[in-house]
Specification:
mainly alpha; 2 helices; 0% strand
């Protein structure tokens, strides 16, 4: 991967990061409000994977080392 992203790539990543943060917030909030145990498990799993996705997207935006 190249050391620097183009402007349009950075904007696309920022848009994805914003969307994933919104999804993560909604899944976390709804898992607290849900009463069905199966639905709670699904929302908790989605929140866990969403957290990993957000961290990966942040790494693309912040890590500029040569070993990417």
């Amino acid at each position: 991967m190249t050391k620097y992203l183009g402007l349009h790539e950075t904007l696309d990543l920022h848009e994805l990061l914003t969307f994933k943060n919104l999804c993560l917030t909604k899944a976390t909030t709804m898992s607290v409000l849900a009463q069905d145990p199966e639905l709670k498990a699904i929302l908790s799993e989605d929140a866990a994977s969403g957290t990993q996705h957000v961290q990966q997207l942040q790494k693309f935006l912040t890590d500029r080392s040569d070993n990417q």
